[in-house]
Amino acid sequence: MKLETTALSLVLAVAARTTEAFTPSSFRVATAPSSAALIHNSVNGMTSSIVSPNASASASALFAGLDDYDEDDEDDDDDDEYPTTLTASRTSFPKLDPDDPNPPIKPRPGRFGFQSLEKEMESAIPITSLTQSMNPKEREENLKIMRQIKNADLADLRLRKDHAGWVDANNDLKAREKNDPWFRVNDEIREAYQMGETDKAEEFKVLAEKMGGPPTGVSISDRGYALHTDIYEIGLSAGRAQSALEASILEERVRRGRAMAAERAKNMEKEQKDWEDMLTNPGGREDKEAKDRRERTMRRILGEIEEDTKKREERAKEMLGQLPELPKDNMSSLKNALTEATEDVKRLRKMRREGRGLGEVSDDADLTFMKPEDRVAAKDASVSESSKPKGSADKAREAAAAESSGGRPRLPGDDDVTLGEIDIDVDSSSSTGTGPLTVEVSSSYNTAQSDPPMRKHCFQYTIRITNNSPTDTIQLLSRRFEIQTVGSSMKDVVQGEGVTGRTPILKPGEVFEYTSTAPLSVRPIATTIIAARMKGEYKYVTLADGQETATEEQVAEGGNSSAELGMFHFVFPQEQRVKPITSAYDDADDDDDDSSAKTTTVTTNTSTTTRAAVSPPASAPAKSAASPASTLPGDSDMSSGNISMSTSDSSNVSSDNVRVQVSSIYRPERSDAKLDKHCFAYNVRITNESPTQNIQLVSRRFEIQTIGSETKDVVQGPGVTGRQPILKPGESFEYTSTAPLSVKPMSDKTAVVARMEGDYNFVLLGEDGSTPLSSTPLQAKMGVFHFILPDSESA
User: Fold this and answer.
1) Per-residue model confidence as pLDDT tens digits over 113-148
2) Counting beta carbons within 10 angstroms of the beta carbon of residue 34, is it exposed (0 to 12), middle (13 to 18) or buried (19 or more)?
C-alpha cells in the first residue's frame, strides 16, 4: 500500500507542474495542504529529490480545489497507517475576513452558464448612461425577430435536439434584447415595484419614456412595466389555465365551507338557545310555533284577498272607466242601501202614477225603513229616469255592449239597412266635393280574403283625395267613418288620427290615394245585394304661408275643417247574392225564422264531408248556376191531399254510378203548429260508386211542393252547402239541411205536408283529379220523398 501511495504522489506531482503552466493566475487559489500532500511529505524523503518545492506547492494548490471530491476517498482510511507528522507547509494560506461578502471562491458554471458573470458585467454599465440608438421602425422589427426566436425557433431547435443551433439562437435573442436598452429599464422597473421601491420605479419610468417607451406592439400594465408574456406574446398555457381554474374552485370551496361553518355555528347557537328556553319555560316553544303558523296563514290569506281585490278593481276600471265608490265600512254600506231603496220607491211610485211600468210597490207597502220626510216626499217625488245616476250594473252592461262592438262607439243605424230594404240608389262608389277637396271612393269584393261559409266577407275600397285649391296647401289630420252592415241596427264608428298612419300634405293640385280593406261578418239576405253602407269625413287644416306642417295644437284639435266622404255601399258579387223565390214554405237559418217573410231561401246549417271542397273548374260552369228560382205546375194529388203514391220519408236512388240517399225527420223544437210552422231536417248522402272515375259536384236543383199548393217551388244554385266537393271512387259526401215550412196540414186526409225531389249535377274528372273531361254535366237523381208529420202533430 505504501508503494502504491508513493507512486500516486509522484504522478500527481508531475501533473501539477504540467497543469500550472496552463492555469490562469486568477484561478490559482492558496488553500491548506491536502491529505495527499501530507502523505507526500511523510514518505522517507523519497520524493524530495524528485519533486521540487514549487511542484509540491502546485500539487497542494491543485488538491486544494479537489478537496470537496476527496472527502469520501479511500485514502481517508489509509491515513491511520502512517504517522501524522505535520511539518510547516511551504504553501501560504490566505487570511480570510469573516466580514468579506465576496470570499475567494472558485466560480462554477450554473445551469445556464456563467450568468452571474454576465450580469455583473452588464450591471457594471450605469443604467443612466444608456441611450436609445434605434429608431421606432428598427425597434419594431427587432421585437418581431425576438418574438419569432422566442416562440418558434428555440422550441423548434429543442425538438430537433440541435444544441449548438439553440445556443446560437439564444445568444442572438440576448444580443437583440441588449440592443434595445428599454428592456433593461423595464426589468429594473419590475424589480423596483416588486421590492416596494416606488420612488426608484418612478425614476425608471421617466428614463423609459426618454428611451421612446416600449416598442410598438408592447402594452404596459397598470403597474408601469410590461410583462414577459406581453413582450413575447406568450398566451396562457393549458397548465396555467388549469391551475387558475383549480385555484378558483378551491377558493369557492373554501368560501362555501366557511359559509356552511358559520351557518352551522348559527344553528347550534339557536338550538342551544331553544334548549335553554325550553328548560326555563316549558311549552313556550310549541306556543310560539303555533303562533307563527297562524301568522303565516293569515298573511297568506290576506295576500290572496288583496290580490283578488286588485284584480276586481282592475276589471271594474277596465269596464267602467273608473273605480266605483265603495263603502268604507258596514255603516256606510247600510246608509247607501237605504238611500238607493228610497230612490227606487220614489221612482216606482212616480211610474205607477204615470201609468208606466207594473207598479210593483203598492201604496200600503212597508216603508218603515225610510225616514218620515222621505215617506212624504215619495208620494210627490218626480225623479226622472234619465236624471237617476246609473248603477254599477248598468255601467257594466254598457261596457259589455261596447266591448262586443270591438270597443268602438256605436250609433243608431238606418232603418232601410236594418230591414234589408234599401230605399235609395245602391252604388259601390261615390264622389263628393267639399270646399277645396274632392273625395272619391270605389269598392270591390276581395275574394282571396273572404270565407263565405263562415260569413266572412272582405271588401276593399280605394279613396282618392284631390286638392282643387289653386293656392292653399292642406294637411289631412284625422278621419271618421260610419259603417252599418245589413241586418244590424247599429252603426260602428271608426275614427283616428291621420290616414293609414300618416298625415299627408297636399299642395295645390296634388292628389293623395290609398287602398284599405273592410272585413265584414255579415250574411247575405234575399231582399238586397249590399253587405254594408259606409260614409264619413276627413278633418284637415289649411297651412299658412311658410308653414311646413301643422302645429301641435292643430294636431290635438284634429283639424278645423272637414271634407265629406260620400255614402257608398259594399255590394256582394253575383255569385254571393241570394236568389229569392216565392214560396209557401220557408227554409232559413237557425233562430232566423220570420212568420211575416214571404221570400225565403233554402240554406244549410250543418254538414260533414270526407274530403275538402275545392273551387269549381272554370271550364265547367253549372248550367243552372245562373238560372233564377222559379215555379212549376204541381202534382194534383198533392194539391187535393189525396196522395196517389206510397209515402216515405226517405229515398235511395242510383244513377250514372252516383247514389243519392236522403232521409227526413220532424223538428218539433223549431215548429209551432198553432202558427202552421213545421220544420223538418233532411240528411243527404252522395256516394261515388264508380270503380275508377273521380267526380265533382257542381250544382243542385230541388222541386218542393207543399200540401194543398198548386205549384212546385224550384230551388237551384251552385255547389252543395256552398262547396263543390270532389269524390274519389267509393268516397261519400254527407250533409244535413233544414226545411221550415209554412203550411196548413190536411190532417183528415194525410200526414204528408210536402213532397221533394231533385237532382245533382256533376262532372267527370281526368287522371289528375281536377280537370273535367267534359263541359256538359251529368245528373244524379234524388228520389221522391215526403215530409211527414208524426202522429202527435197530425192528430
Assistant:
1) 555 555 555 656 788 888 888 999 999 999 999 999
2) buried
